[in-house]
Write a structure and sequence with these properties.
The protein is mainly beta. The chain has two helices and 36 strands. It has helices spanning 2-45, 141-149; strands at 54-55, 66-67, 69-74, 77-88, 113-122, 128-136, 154-161, 172-176, 183-187, 193-198, 201-202, 204-208, 215-216, 223-224, 227-228, 231-232, 238-239, 244-250, 255-262, 276-281, 284-287, 293-295, 298-302, 308-314, 317-322, 329-334, 340-341, 345-347, 352-360, 364-371, 382-387, 392-397, 403-406, 412-419, 426-432, 435-442.
Amino acid sequence: MGTFLVLIVFLGIFGGYQLALKVVSQSKARIIATAIANQNIEMIRNLPYKKVGTTPHAIDEPAGDVSKITTTSQNNIEYTVETKIIYINDCFDGPQSISCPIAPVIDDCVKDYKRAEVKVSWGGSIKGELALTTDVMPKNLNQEQEECTGAAAGVLSVSVFNALGEAVFLPLIAVIDPNTGETLTSYQPPNGKHDFVLTPNSYKIKITKTGYSDTQSYGAGDNYNEKIIAEPAKSHPVVYEGKLTEVGFSIDVLGLMIVQTRGTKEQGYPLIHNVTFKMEGVKTVGNDAEGNPIYKYSQNHTTNGAAEIDISDLEWDSYSFYVDSPDYKLLGIESPLGTETSQPIDLLPGSVQAVGLILKAENTLLVKVQDALSKDPIFAASVRLSNLDLGYDGIQPTDEEGKTLFIPLKEATYDLEVQIEGYQTYTGTVLVSGDVTKIVDLEKVE
């Protein structure tokens, strides 16, 4: 009985000793395995991003310089090292999904980064395994794109802002081949900025948005309104391999100018019909071969029968007006009418600006038509002024003040005829020399 009890005690002590030896051996093996896994993880982290991959590799895995399975022996234990490297698609930069509702709708490259798992296992009486995982990120978008296309790339970062320097919501940014005019890619970023990963080259950028002004880059030799640009104000950006190229463009809400052509204040600002004038902004797209500026906006307009014209879809700018005619002289600018100002006239984004062009000629005739009894002005009376010898024959309506201005005229005697329904027709002659005012009293038909 005593021997049996002693045997039990010693067997327990021996079993405990064996267990302790096994735990120590297992711990040593795990420590060595951890060191091996760490060594391989650090090796992967120090590889160039393009070489982070396995050999051999599956079709959807990155190829690289890391062996998929290797063995090593330490402390008489053989360790098997298995490395698995895969691509990870981070939905943060697209494509949009239920799990990432605010991500971009599309993603040009879904191979956002790589995830490496190193598993170390060992056999024998104390077999076991452990695994370590690390994520390897590309240094920039160039490296990410190179994984997708296999070609070298650079990044073109395009920012779109308004007149106040604030980001424009959802502008359409188009990247265009400047040689063929083909749109290569486009995007509408909510924050007004997008990074395009492109092959090294020169690209034309065009920015548009409904209700906004548009802008673009230009190249030397481009034709703009029949003028050849020699020195562009905003050149086509160039994308370099492995580099970041940043460009900015400015657009804003379109505005409206209402331009009237009128006589002088002394004449009562009478309307002047069918006047052709030139309107020109200060923004340029570049210079021509002689160094002369090529203005982004420079157009001729003619006032209609109401002696005014609405010029819509205007970019915010400062505009000047010119009347190139031997018959007229532009005395001044009033904006609004009655308020003298100097050129250029500023047009703010989304605003409406009224402009009066005050004109003068050497000889003018201001006809005032009124009721013979009440002296009230007669609106829309037809006034005809003619001189057969000069070949002149003009018909104009009177305005709300019963006025109409004939301008320009040559010094001569003219036939005058005024008629309107409900009144007797007036006929007579008038000598025009300098600024002449003719008051016509019409009698009602009984």
